[in-house]
Amino acid sequence: MSFIEINNLTKIIKGKCVLNNISLELEQGKIHGFFGRNGSGKTMLFRAVCGLIKPTSGEISVQKKKLHQDISFPQSLGVLIETPGFWSAYTGFENLKLLASIKNEIDTQEIKNSILRVGLDPNMKSPYKKYSLGMKQRLGIAQAIMEKPDLIVLDEPTNALDEEAVTMVRNILIEEKQRGATILIASHNKEDINLLSDHKYYMNDGSLSYLKE
Fewer C-beta neighbours within 10 Å, C or N terminus of the chain? Predict the structure, then answer.
């Protein structure tokens, strides 16, 4: 069953076509991997799917609801696109607790569990501004999964992570798929895409095709 339907999606910014007439159906409960060099359009496509940008033409539906018509953004969404944005003076736990208070769907223990899953200490007193790049990336992944969303969108999820952390993130994504989540990952690391993805796509200059082995 299609979870996301993309029909003739085009986005033009300052005269440049950054997404070129993309049509795609993304199956529910699968990991969909998007491979391509930096600037190929992966991040822009993810922004469109999350409702963060409006198409120049075409449309996107999530669970049969059209973005920017029926809904503003997917209703059950965990997302990490580019650099995680957190409050620099707060701890990791304090940051996630503030974010969780928006929907108020999970309790303190569930927040702590998500931090533990990514290999961080929920009781650590260091403020976010003192985190290493790898720790910041881990916390970003924790916030994306903490509310057990139906749709998880991760742009370069293994960026800045060491080998052990990369394995951990891959295991988390497999666990989330087994839970029933639909997952989109973008990477310029072909190994991530090949190991994790049920369906693989290649992006180049805003155009999309199926990824060949």
Answer: C
